[in-house]
## 1
Amino acid sequence: MFGYRVTAASILALSVGCLFAAPVAAQDATGGAPVAGLANQDLIEDPAIVVTGSRFGARIAVDSPTPIDSITADELASGGETELQNMLRVDVPSFNTARPVAAGVANFLRSPTLRGLSTGQTLVLVNGKRRHTNSDLNVGNQVGRGDVAYNFNALPIVALKRVEVLRDGASAQYGSDAIAGIINVILDDSIGGDLYATSGITTRGDGEKFTIGAGYGLALGDGGFVRLSGQFQTQGASDRSRADTRQQYFGIGPNGQPVLPSANFGSGIGLTPSNGALDPREATFDRTGISPFGQPNYDNYSFVLNAALPVGGDAELFAFGAYSDLSGTNANFFRRAGQDETVRGIFPDGFNPFQTTNLVDYSAAIGLRGKDLAGFGWEISTVYGTSRTDIGFTGSNNVSFGLDSPTEFDRGGTRLRQWTTNLDLTRSFEIGMGSPLNFAFGAEYRQESFRAIAGEPASYGFGGVPILDGPNAGRPASAGAQPVPGSSPEEEVDGGRNNIALYAELEKEWADVLLTSLAARYEDYSDFGSTTDFRFAARLAVSNTVNLRGSVGSSFRAPALPQQLFQRSETSFTGGVPVATRIVSTVDPLAPLIGASPLNPEQATTFSLGATYNSGGLSASVDAYQIDLNDRIVLSSQFSSPALTQLLQANGFGQIRAVTFESNSVDTTTRGVDVTLRYASEFLGGKLTSTLAANFTDTKFDRVAGTPEALAALGITTELFDRRSQVRLAEGIPQSKVTLNFDWNRGPWRINLTNTRYGKVSQADLLNQTQAQVDALVKGFNVTLVPRANGNFDIIETFGAKIVTDLGVSYDLTNSLTLRIGADNIFDVFPDKQVATTAQSQLAGARGSDNTGIFPYSYLSPFGLSGTYLYGSIGVRF
């Protein structure tokens, strides 16, 4: 089933051995006698109570027929992370989160994955209500490419009570997107106050972070509450780039005339030939840090309100909402002084056009629920959410405006709005044979809209000024800001849709032994039609400590509005070279010319089978799953050819050299196993809680669509989803992850140690390489060569598994004051380096994956590129 059985088994054996060594060590320390100070009942942890996965109230997680993880806010905050998606990686076995770099908006919207699927195939809820996604589309060469993401930074940790993660297909219960599972964020409803601050920096002196948050809850009426929480985060940039050794300035020709600089690695420092004699400024030019490669900088404000108030006899009015505002900048690829994209009168030594991103999210929910409406429990609720993304450039220019060019541009933005209203009814019927038959049904109505907004005219316009100097002086200058033109009025889009859903669920426990659950849902969308989904789940109590569980069902995902309507020009990297690329929407005039067609919903069939054990201080679960996903929505290959360039020029896109678009181009099967193990024991006079969370997953392609006829007519033979895209989707996230956490508590002391083994990841950025190019590139790197029909090769790079260790120590000065210090990645682990550009490879006409020697590491690293991070924090409760 998996190609890494031996490795996985070895790690599991080692982890379990370490896990059970703790109580043995405790006995040895006292000559075989148990350690005094803890009663056996202190080692029995309170069972996790969850509300996700059923419409019939709370239950113990291990009694659920489907796997659910429940992580408290204290557990989430035990390390140095301040972002929710990074905190979840410890306790949720199949949860991974990308650490994108040089990815535009995606730098601030990390794309988490669950059970090996993409971000958009996981549904996020807040207090059980559907959360809106971000308005932008991930178009970078990153995990989650072509998908939409949630803005987790809008939910501050100080506002959370716990997070529940349902690891199973659940569209029959919750609707679109819930193919891999559900992340349900439960907001804090406590009375009293919390205040905390944390700050840290990498051992290289960059990537500094500071977070301060506070929350306070008040009793409201008789049994109600209102709680307001707020948080401010600031993050500094980190940089792990290498020096840019390319020729920066015009070369000097034989007669003293200027010549365009070479773009080859080493051409500015004498490692490879330059174009013309080197300008004397090459010797003094500071080549370090001009194309930063690492985490971006940002400031983020977020606020959450949560409230409930009993009204009437048995009814409760509830409301919650959130607001966040993130502003950040990230670097692009450096424009050299000798390039035609540079106005040298403004930037005599070149420039890096930094992108500015502003993300604003707000949402509000209100509802009323009660226990008896003609014998039914009932709830009516409505939730509104909106996302606003605005993009700009700073330190840039529009060459066609010459010396009058602005250096800052408003590039444009996107808007997404979602409004969901639900009516839910539940009732129990006594039919004998154990507990009552629980019955639920309801209806949902949702409206969604999406808008793309043009930038300022100078960001996309043609100013009419030719290139002012250099060998191309007098020739027409390219239009638009660098690195890519802003959105024009012709690219503005305003679209929407609505859908209505009817759903029902039956649940019964038979003779306190067998629990069965059946859910069904019908949805009708105004844009693509209707779909019906079901799920059957069961849990069998084999004994008081052992349960068997399983489920089978169908799920679906409606194409997100940004996937259907988003259109923009972007810079992407192909084989280490930046390429101006057009993302074509289904409503773009270019769509029929290149074979882009309307999107269909994704359809999935999910299977899950597992077992749980819970006795005393030990709980464990093992769950195997299979997800058959058809008509998967992905961003296509990047297509280019001379004939396509002519077509683009004829349609007003003269700067664009490649196109890509969303399509239902693949079917996949994903299989995997989740393992969790939690054990509480006595150790050194304190309580040691040991947690193992492991996931092994594998994705195969069942179908890959061929080249669209419209593109084939232009001489293009690339598949609709090429090898680069296939490897990124199936192998760009770790195919295994094992986390071993030890949390020791004695009196005021708490020590938390986490070891996470991230499995290998792969990329295929170097395609169609000749034998000579392969020989010049791959020595010393872990690669697989895939032959092509023309005798050339595709190079698949594999970056090996790494173990990252985090350590945190906290001390309670009083019952209300806690200090914590720690280090993430204490052994300063970095990913393997990617195939490098060298002088030898340049002579063979080949470049590595490292952007001409500047970016040493792959953008796919699951644990980032920052190295060791040191932090300290203080927390106060009152």
Note: The chain has 13 helices and 38 strands.
## 2
Amino acid sequence: MRKPLHMAIALAAVAVVALMLAVPLYLPTASAIDSTRAGTTIYTVGGQDQMKTRNWLPAVANDVWTSDVLGRVYDTVGQTHPVTDALVPYIIKGVDDDGDGGFQRSEKADFLKGTCPVPCADEVTWRRTVIAFYDFNGVYFHDGVQATIGDVLFNYVFQSLNPRFNTDLRVLWDDPNAPSFAANRHMNIDLLWCGPTLETQWQGFGAVPGDNTLRCALKFRLQDDFALFYRSTLVGLTLFPRHEFEGTGGGRHPVMNIPNFPLGCDNVDWGRAIYPENDPNFGQGVRTDETLYRPFQYQCAEAWQMTDADVIGTGPFKFGTWSFGQFAQVVKNPRFFYGVNPDNTAVVYDPDLPVYMHQPFVDSILFKVYRTTQLGVLALQSGEIDFYHWALPPEFVPDLLNDQSIRVWANAEPGFFYLAYNFRRQPFGYTSWPPPVGQDRDPLVDTGLPFRQAFAHLIDKATIVRVLLQNYGVIADGTLSPSNTFWYNGTLPKYAYDPTQAGLILDNAGMPKTGPGPCQTDGTNCRDLGLRLGRSQFEILTPQADYDPIRASAGAMIAAAARSIGVNVASKPTAFGTIVAKTAAADFDMFILGWRISGTDPDYLFSFFHSSNAASGQNYPGFYDSQFDSVISASRKELDEAKRQQLVKWAQGILAERLPYDVLYYRTNIEAERQDRFANYSVSSGSIWNYWSIQSIKRPTNKFIRPLVTAPNAIVEGGTTAVATTVRDQAGVAVVGASVRYSVPAGSGTFTPGGSCTGATCSVTGQTGSSGTFTASYVAPATVPSGNPNVQIGVTVTSTDPDVAVEQRLATVTVFAAGTQFLSLTPQLSTGDLVPTGESLVFGVDVRDQDGNLAPSATVTLTVSPSGPSITPPSGTASQLRSGIVFQAPASISQSQATYTVTVTATQAGSAPTTSTIPFTVVQLTSTFRCPDGTVVPAGAACPGGPLVPALDVLPILATVGAAAVVYGILRNRKKGA
């Protein structure tokens, strides 16, 4: 199974509507945290249902509840940046951009091959041949086994055998249009080498710590163009442990006899998916007719009823336990890879990774089951759980908004909820299934089209949204949300709610009402729907009302409208797991479910509706349409974004006309969490339950750090200057041992001592000393950077306290050519940059010339904006203003904190002038503070059962940071039953 990355797959970020129903003035300080026991921080999540299996391979595992748990255990070979969503180095480091077959530093983080050099011998072969580079140092499975390139090669074959999740891998098959993996199990992937021995293979390999044999290169030979190859096929590959599935799995495989299990599984040796290391064909799939090795028995892997100990991945959490019907638990993986040796963090394998990767901040996640929404909400209100992972019906919102301990979030969800038909049965679909080739649109074959069109007029979508959703949603007209603005087709046909029109369509299609009276359940007076059903009753499967009252009520409304015109149908509330099992087995007439869609790219339309996925994939209706197949396949191959957009819109139009789904509504996702217990959430795909939220949530704290970077704003090419960062905590005390990292883009300079350049970045990392300061030297490039002489030095500061958020700053340095006369400014803020209202702060500026000498006669002027504070003196000579400048904060501010910028300009005859800005943060003094439970205490006193509250009202600063975190989205995979 291939589990897509937690990333935005499209070219534009998903439109996240962050309707903050309860945005507090500040994030409250932590009260006594029930989820912390014996020093272990447990994050407790409530949900409507339990996981269905520990094995992520079978169709029954493709529901949200199973994915919630197992998604924490498994991880992919690639990652994305938590803010920019760009593909970033992880296990996979980049691709060969220039086609020389080697890995240069400049190719790190490069995940798009460059253009074919002129003259180009074969542009098609060039773009379809991709070499990728991997480094497995520090990457271990949860049972301690080292991950290797063999695991990557294994997973390409292994996951190709799963028809529900191989759609992004087919481009590497011999026939990329085949509906199933060929018997030769051949993948167009070549292992080029492991253990580079030449600089031309891996630049700088000799200077990088670790086992060099774990650095490898693979060549991918695409058999067609695929727009999502880099994000989905290459970077989005999940790592299942080869050693657990091949052979006997280290003794893990049970004896599984027929008839309860598939044929061949009585042998605990399930064979090999790929040829082993000592075979000349290492890495290629073992043919099904191979005699030297037993070919892999995938059916056994999918049927395996795993134990707790069998669930093994490389993800940030290890599987703990599952108590059927009660709870499941995952625990923090202490060896989760984030760029360092997990057994000796002083050994850094990849200095870029710790900038965006880190261990989870919670020690465990406990998943508890609440079968009704009301029970889940009560558990949240009582503090039994920290987050209720289910879309709340609007009627619960008012009470939750009045609870100061709870925060309510509302975001547009990119998924959708739909009514589906079984095209394998009459009167919903084809007279024979699959339909004869090329005849899927023949009215004598797709005799179900009039029935589906009639039903489209029986769905009162406006009432569903207005009454059931209470306007927390949007009427749907297709399989893409209108919030997905780039891909959405706004010209789709809309079917008005009109039972009379529905009746006329059925009359004209030869499905007349058989009597004048109301349709009875025994068929009396009902419409005759043909040979299979006649007048007998059929069912629309919906979730039960205590699971999802919206879908249960929608099903009842649709069935009532249909019965009003003589269709003998009943809405049948059914356990969610039963619906999933029935749809996977194609044992249904109609059903109402939903899809949780991650990302904005509409490639999921291929998985849901292409005929190659009808037999055993995610095309559960069994929809066949040769025109749709052609259009959606063309969209996957189209590399021109504008052309692909038109193809995707065309595909949406086909679906709206042929109606395999009738999409009911796009929901506003209302979620609630205990803000008094955990903080640092982010929004992705319309939910705060996402990869980066789970990695980053932590107990709320009133602690923070403020780094102050001191560096000149100008330097001569090839020159060296000190860059110092002083770190203070919320009380203004110097922080000892904080980690400080300086970084610049490659080619923009270096750092000494101890600096290094890897890939696209040059950096140095150190720790603050007793004064809270870390200093390193920045060495400017030998020549002024072309295009832009301004170099931005990124500063990342991490406290030794895991409860304190990471802080980042930028220092801009202008590089001048040798021989140019210029001035440089360096702020001197010995007491920091945080000022209480009504108080003053004394600072100075240091002005020097191009040779680093003081420029005492230079003229210095200072201004501040916005208005409010004052600067004394506002001007003077450089010698006068090296110290003694007074920043006077205003007596009051309209908010709890405000930032003011002091602009400093230095001029001197014969030298280029220079300007620098210094931000000051003014905070409002408070005399009292309101605790999360409503208690008012003096500033600096403790809340009942909670930690000390700072005398300065610094919490709005944290709230601002937290609010900023919701504007980006990191996306995960699509799941059924959202």
Note: The longest helix spans residues 641-658.
